Amino acid sequence: AGFDTSRSGVSKIEARLSYVDDKTMLYLAEVLRVPVQELFPPRTPGNRIHEFMEKLETTRF
Q: How many angstroms separate the Cα of 5 from the Cα of each of 16, 47, 57?
């Protein structure tokens, strides 16, 4: 097991130009020894998606 990609592939992930599935995200977090949340860009207050995500997190279904 491992992460089989090129430098170019990693660069595309860093630039958010490449899709990363859940399994790969978990693998990267483990290898980098960071929480999965650290692999996502920071939330920006005032951003519509930020507001939407806040509503989702506080709404009970």
A: 15, 33, 34
- Phi, then psi, of 21 in degrees rounded to 5: -80, 170
5-8 contacts, C-beta under 8 A, 24 or more apart: none
Domain boundaries, the chain: 7-58
The model's pTM: 0.59
pLDDT digits (tens, 9 = 90+) for 1-57: 567 788 898 898 888 888 889 998 999 999 999 999 998 877 777 777 777 877 888
31 vs 55: CA distance, rounded Å: 32
